[in-house]
Q: What sequence folds into this?
């Protein structure tokens, strides 16, 4: 099929997913329509990116619903391989792909092996599907930077296109993990983005003079709302290193827990 599409000179767009599709994924499909002739959505719950076996086992499988959603928005091809097809030698784990400055910091520190797992599956998908474009959401910002680096370092002829995070009206970023929140937690969850937004506004207002104080106050506010914090800080948006006075493009990255659910979100802005 891929050979045929290439022979016909059709441009191919890939949207990698783990299924359990929501409007964030659909926004990527809509974006892809502006770029390519043929849209391929992959659905594969990638076992090697889960540092926790239980997290993998409880990941929601909603294939029937996913297929219907993709059919409704006229996706051309769905690629949903079996684990054995993607990893014939999964126990041996023969290959290791890592971007040293990005894979083990922040989310990578709290989820050891996660970005190595993402990197391997993304390379496998790129090699099998050979897309001209691949589309990713900006909610997983560190993942996006890692994939851009892989494309550059391994000379993939693929353009990475990112799309803004899709949110509910109350600000909560769409995520498959929102399904795990109970009725109390779902009321608290929107405060994450509200607090991120407020923090960014204050930092801009105070012209980056009092930044760590502002961040610390926001952390206390998050804790008082019931979040447990893994990451809440401001970084250089290109490197994810700490910011200096010279930084222009910055990002607040948040990774927090509500009960047993891990939520991530971010906001990029200019100083
Ligand atoms: O963001 C995701 O859903 C996954 O990490 C991805 C990119 C599909 C790789 O498994």
A:
């Amino acid at each position: 099929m891929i050979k045929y599409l290439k022979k016909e000179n059709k441009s191919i767009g890939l949207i990698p997913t783990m299924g359990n599709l929501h409007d964030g994924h659909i926004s990527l499909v809509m974006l892809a329509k502006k770029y390519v002739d043929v849209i391929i959505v992959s659905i594969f719950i990638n076992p090697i990116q889960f540092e926790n076996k239980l997290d993998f086992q409880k990941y929601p499988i909603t294939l029937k619903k996913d297929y219907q959603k993709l059919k409704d928005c006229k996706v051309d091809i769905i690629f949903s391989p079996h684990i054995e097809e993607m990893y014939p030698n999964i126990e041996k784990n023969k290959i290791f792909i890592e971007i040293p400055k990005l894979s083990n910091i922040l989310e990578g520190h709290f989820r050891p092996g996660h970005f190595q797992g993402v990197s391997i599956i993304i390379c496998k998908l790129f090699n099998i599907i050979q897309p001209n474009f691949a589309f990713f959401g900006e909610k997983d910002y560190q993942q996006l930077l890692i994939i851009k680096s892989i494309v550059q370092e391994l000379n993939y002829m693929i353009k990475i296109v990112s799309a803004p995070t899709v949110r509910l009206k109350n600000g909560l970023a769409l995520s498959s993990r929102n399904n795990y929140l109970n009725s109390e937690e779902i009321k608290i969850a929107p405060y994450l983005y509200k607090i991120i937004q407020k923090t960014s506004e204050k930092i801009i207002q105070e012209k980056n003079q009092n930044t760590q104080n502002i961040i610390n106050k926001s952390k206390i506010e998050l804790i008082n709302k019931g979040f447990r914090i893994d990451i809440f800080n401001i970084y250089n948006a290109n490197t994810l290193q700490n910011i200096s006075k010279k930084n222009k493009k910055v990002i607040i990255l948040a990774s927090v827990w509500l009960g047993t659910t891990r939520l991530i979100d971010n906001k990029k802005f200019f100083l």
About this structure: The pocket of pantoate is lined by residues 16-18, 46, 49, 118, 121, 140, 143 (CB under 6 Å).
